[in-house]
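Homework-ish question, so no full write-ups if that breaks the rules, but can someone show me the predicted structure for this set?
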Amino acid sequence: MVEPLPDATRKYFDVCQEKLGMIPNVLKAYAFDVEKLNTFTAMYNDLMLGDSGLSKLEREMIAVVVSSINKCWYCLVAHGAAVRQLSGDPVLGERMAFNWRTAKLDARQRAMLLFAEKLTTESHKTEEADRQALRDAGFSDRDIFDIASVAAFFNMTNRVASGVAMAPNDDYHGSFR
Amino acid sequence: MVEPLPDATRKYFDVCQEKLGMIPNVLKAYAFDVEKLNTFTAMYNDLMLGDSGLSKLEREMIAVVVSSINKCWYCLVAHGAAVRQLSGDPVLGERMAFNWRTAKLDARQRAMLLFAEKLTTESHKTEEADRQALRDAGFSDRDIFDIASVAAFFNMTNRVASGVAMAPNDDYHGSFR
Amino acid sequence: MVEPLPDATRKYFDVCQEKLGMIPNVLKAYAFDVEKLNTFTAMYNDLMLGDSGLSKLEREMIAVVVSSINKCWYCLVAHGAAVRQLSGDPVLGERMAFNWRTAKLDARQRAMLLFAEKLTTESHKTEEADRQALRDAGFSDRDIFDIASVAAFFNMTNRVASGVAMAPNDDYHGSFR
Amino acid sequence: MVEPLPDATRKYFDVCQEKLGMIPNVLKAYAFDVEKLNTFTAMYNDLMLGDSGLSKLEREMIAVVVSSINKCWYCLVAHGAAVRQLSGDPVLGERMAFNWRTAKLDARQRAMLLFAEKLTTESHKTEEADRQALRDAGFSDRDIFDIASVAAFFNMTNRVASGVAMAPNDDYHGSFR
Amino acid sequence: MVEPLPDATRKYFDVCQEKLGMIPNVLKAYAFDVEKLNTFTAMYNDLMLGDSGLSKLEREMIAVVVSSINKCWYCLVAHGAAVRQLSGDPVLGERMAFNWRTAKLDARQRAMLLFAEKLTTESHKTEEADRQALRDAGFSDRDIFDIASVAAFFNMTNRVASGVAMAPNDDYHGSFR
Amino acid sequence: MVEPLPDATRKYFDVCQEKLGMIPNVLKAYAFDVEKLNTFTAMYNDLMLGDSGLSKLEREMIAVVVSSINKCWYCLVAHGAAVRQLSGDPVLGERMAFNWRTAKLDARQRAMLLFAEKLTTESHKTEEADRQALRDAGFSDRDIFDIASVAAFFNMTNRVASGVAMAPNDDYHGSFR
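A: Not a homework solution, just the prediction itself:
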């Protein structure tokens, strides 16, 4: 981490500590360069916490399903905990991480995860028919942009985390079980 | 696109028009939401144009190799042109896009692209030995962070572009041939 | 389940209830046919609880790594809990389930899991060199038989469980966290 | 092999010799440990020779199709011979071993082999729709259990055989041609 | 190349030079053995230039799509140029080479390329239903033979070119852009 | 088949009947067009029967190994018989068809089949190091051309045969067992 941290960063980390009880290791991993940290957090916060037709839980479900395909240790632990927290259903978090098809999902969420899965494993075969399936399940074109963006974002973070061997904070493991 | 565009965005687009002769379609695709546009351009500019032990050409080579594996139409066209431009070698751009192993590369660039390829196709198998191979080829740990980040970023953009069917500007096709 | 259960089966279930606090759902799933239940439990008990040069924890690690590749909901939940219990290390169980390469393993356990992984994903390429790598890591030929047998067994149970949609007992999820 | 063989094992081997003209090498391979041999033969005999809605030929067809995907030398030779014998159709055995889709099958057997194939290659994607396809082809839920169990069993034996390099008896090769 | 070249070969090369402005490197690569050169050119000319229900452009589209899957440097360059030339559409050539699904195709050409793709990636799963899909799109059985033959031919040439590292003539790169 | 067959074709078929006891179905499949038949047989005869540093048996071994990966019913049956015939070893033919790694091969033949396998499954990754491995095993560059050509040729014929559903002559099945 750069020393000293800029005030804005310090404050952001204090908020994390207060609200989450920890500073997520991914933030510390980026903190050797404040610009990189800022671009990461700006994109993360917009995608995962900003306005969207997708609920926060749905966005976290996409995060975990993508991370499960990519077997990303960091993201499975951190976002698995988020699914457990947001859903209040500890088993749902494990289902997303282990095999999302075992979860009882409505047609909307199933369509959403099928699209995220296809984008992850064979994005080049995505066609208008795949987008139409999302519309048929009730998603708007803006929602489709968000599904694609969230799935794509975790295809990025999974690879950064695996590429530089990021390890998740220990506190995630036992939380919301 | 939001109407009217904020001044900063308008200026950014004007700079694009002036320097590139076009506004890249990816920017227009994000311009329905200025926050999303900004987070995308901030990350892109930091990664591809900011300080790094990797040359801009090397970063574009990673972009094209990743996009070739993912068969992303938008990124292959736009970043293939960038490799042609930055290298002054039109054939190199096509080699990166069609099959990077056909290019005559020094040990450094070969190691860099092998790592980017592995992160793209089986990121979960990345191990310390893979990072050590980069160090042995002369890369610092900061460089490794940048290789991973650039490879990961295009694993994101490839999927956004394919997910929402972005089409590259026609001007790329004939440029720097 | 057949009604009434034969005495021996009833006793076996009582022992499970007493020692594990539950009757594992896999046993109930087989109990429609006592012969099938008996052949399953006989093989399971011999492989996982019988004499072997592999510790019980090592056998459970193989079980989870194989089940992770096959994304078997039942086995990941049940045997992930077993790794947590036997190792006293809740994080180790999640590492095995999410991405075993993130675990710090000695050369012996790494060789063991590489062999189990190869048997699971491309068994037809197993060659004498693969067995020699196990011998070099200190395993005897009898140990190799056991590694192969345990890895193979979970390649069976994963497919039975997924094929007929077995669900693990809820009690596993929160245990040994 | 343990020396001397227990009486029951000796008798079982004698029956093999009498009925098959050989002791299958897989039995000799397990005979270093009578308990392992017994658990293997008990499960094998229940699955392949016990009561089932599947004919013995159908079970052998599943065995060969699974072994073909896994390229298991032992099982392709031994169970290919069994398909030739039970069907009285030497070409059918080769079709199952080389490419089952070239065989003219009725809807029932095609559905059965599609399910066995999916369980072998991507078991985690097995869903209720796959089981419904079997029911639509006339299979009961008990039959589905048997299809899954037989397919799963050969996913086990293929890996034991490849893992420890079992070689089939030479007598299989020319038989029932 | 054999020295001197037989008269017929010399004439053939002169025709190439005159009509194409170059002698394609593949011909020079085969010219160490005139019989091999002749069998190659005879098959090539029959398939790509002979009578067929497929237009020459369609055959070149198949060539590029197959070569894209196999990432064949030589064939992507040479036949990418041919698609640009025959279609008069420089972008179409790049679409075929980078990701054919991004091209706007009519139902006939889409069916043709889906079949070529399947033959390339999982030929053993080709079934009557796949051929029927081609008939439904307007192709005759003779046309199907030609689609299969052209797709298969480039699955051969891709592997010869990659196997012996053939490099395409430089003149292809800038042509018909 | 065209009627009447040209004299040369008729004679060729008569020779087949005399020497092989049959007219291979592949020839009949091509005989609807004499030019296609001739280009096929010319290439086949040059590659499989012409001068080469590879023995005829070695070429047939490549044919079967490639066809095994592609699961081509026609070629596995016809060339499996050829390996049985040329080697006088019926088991060797089955090993090549089922899993070539189970065969005891010298370093030369193992290197040859590894190269053929790589060309078949991931030809784009073939590099100078792969060719050097062949040279180290005693092959000349001309031999490498032949290995690549034979492996490539069967990657073609496998796809024609599967694409148009060619069935091998029944006489192959029982021969040379």
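Now go work out the reasoning yourself. Hint: The first helix of chain A runs from residue 7 to 20.
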